[in-house]
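The passage that follows is intended for readers who have already worked through the single-chain material. We present the inputs for a multi-component assembly, then the predicted structure in tokenized form, and finally a short commentary. You are encouraged to pause after the input and sketch how you expect the pieces to fit together before reading on.
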Amino acid sequence: MLELIEEFNLLEAFWMTIKLALWSGFFALIIGTFVAILRVSPVGILNFLGTAYVNIFRNTPLTLIVVACSLVLWGQLGIEPASRDSATFIADLNFRLGVIGLSVYHAAFVCESLRSGVNTIPLGQAEAARSIGLTFGQSLRHVILPQAFRGAITPLGNTFIALTKNTTVVAAIGVAELALAMKNIAEFRSDVLLLGFAVIALAFVILTLPTGLLISHLSQRLAVKR
Amino acid sequence: MHTSRFRLAAVLAAAALVLSACGGDDGGDDGGDTGAGGGGDGDTLTIGIKFDQPGLGLRDGDTYTGMDVDIARAVAEKLGYSEDQIEFVETPSAQRETMLDTGQVDMIFATYSITDSRKETVQFAGPYFVAGQDLLVAADSDITGPDDLDGRILCSVAGSTSAQNVKDAVPGVQLQEYATYSECLEQLANGTIEALTTDDTILAGYAAQEQYAGQFKVVGNTFSTENYGVGLPKGDTDLCEEINGYLEELWEDGTMEQIIQDNLGPANYTPSDANPPEVGGHCG
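Having made your guess, compare it with the prediction:
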């Protein structure tokens, strides 16, 4: 097993999966929060934009989004978020395109998780914020979003665990993470295929199981006491 | 009121599940035939091929075309199976050993290179053809071989032997990996990448397609050897030697050359000098 890990650089692939998950999670959170604000705002056109975003990106398969990032964004539109002079141009390019694809897709799920968090807040909170004269922005910042985040920790955690496993999709554009390593094992060492399978599955369990336990613990500790 | 609605919903869900199981007629039949054929001397011969490699193994609606497909039909005929007793199944690269092991296919003709690591789980009849790794470039490109690739962007399929060979041969190349060759071709056509590398037969098959006619050329400077063999499950070495005999016959009576000309001729493809190969030595 150790020689398998060395031969296919599984530790680097594991680190790449972690990097993908962390960067995409970060951007998904930012974009998702923004879209959630659009969806709960009192302005009709912003509502429409937020809803359109969620409907488009939640219903498009992730593989399609990621491959489109490479073939359309890079191939046709020439958007290259990496410098051609660098020796690791292709690796950086695919990593960043992969992060773009993953964040844009999971932002839709983050938005819906946050909206479910907003729904856990009693209506009286928003009314009270209004009656003491807070503007929409202020009431979001001081009253609504803090409670929404604390109430939405479980769905947000689920989305993050799904994101960690969805990082395997970016193997379709050549990012050197665990799924690509799996393909290499299948091609070059098909005699230890099942062992390779078990090692990669174990790697994902190591990533997702502690995250799940942490999320459960946090959601209880940080729950708003009403 | 609520319980009866709930029961209605549960009954509808169960009905939907049952209907979806019935609806898969093709899947059901395939499963039955493969089971019979895979068991040994069934009435059908299940042959694994590629469905997405033009010129070598391509599924076009109901028909199957390509060099590997024609060779498979010729060998099946010699084994005593008629055309309608052959069933073609798709065998993607990563699953070939598993499908032979579990009996889902009887033999594989899918640009299957003979390697020592694969011989630990399966056995090979052949080789029936020797291909070489080569480059596909734009028709007006100045690349003439792997040495011109330093610093340029090259494309191949993730996990293929070609990608690994080129990483070993030209360390300074920037390699873009996709899941299928079509994506590489798309990028080559719009100029984002400069070369595509894999077996020269596969390249010729792609270059010969109508929509890409005249846009690409195969460089013609092979830099590796790929021995295509017939994948067989381990055990029956007699069948393996029998197929070896038939493959030699196909080369001797000119059928092989005719098949190559029919499928890859439009791309001006000439087989490398290593053909016809020494058949045998990889059974058991």
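Commentary: Confidence is low (pLDDT under 50) at residues 25-40 of chain B. DSSP finds nine helices and 13 strands in chain B. How closely did your sketch match?
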